[in-house]
Amino acid sequence: MDNNRLQAHSISELWKLTTNLLLDKGDKKLNHELLNLIMVLDDFREDVDFDLSFRSVFGDERVDYASGVTFVHPTGDDYGGWEYKSVIEGKWSKTYWGRMWNWNGEFNQIEQSIKRLKEKKNSKTISISIYNPSIDGKKTQAGIPCLLSLDIKPRSDGLYITAFYRSMRISKSGYADFKGLVELGKFISYRSELRLKRITIMGSSVHLGSQNGEMVNTKKLLGMI
Known about the structure:
This protein is α/β, with parallel strands linked by helices. Helix content is 40%, strand content 28%. The radius of gyration is 17 Å and the shape is globular.
């Protein structure tokens, strides 16, 4: 099943709506998979109670580690410059975030995007790549990043960010994915002085997880919120 669209006003609401949709309509033979699912966030309010509930079920590591894959807040300011880092070393140097700010060890895509946004033009050509075909194209599924790219559209009413995922495991990782994208969006919004209007997530394969009691924990969390 494909071509579904969800819209939510918080990260927690989007996680809940997506998980319930997958349980209801997803292909049970493929971990409740839906193809070509569009998930829209048009408000970015914090939900402390959900965060505590998620951590109580899945643990802190899932949120903190996975969020670091997508975004690590740089330190500094526009006057003295910004210092970028990745807190997760190893194969993702290689993290999504590492590739955003240090592509091939030589190019900061985040700063370039912000520079373009500060021009205050209705550009259609501001994009950030994560998938590297010269490296990832030689690997099997386990070695290919789930997040492939970001597209950024500045418009008169604000900043629109679209994230393209080849695969999303919502049950255990979705909350961290959403959270990391929101934090990244807020940083770009702050630096470009454009209001963050909408984050759209397009998932080619969106599904749940079943290993290590993940499905049981997913339903447990749904019952808590």
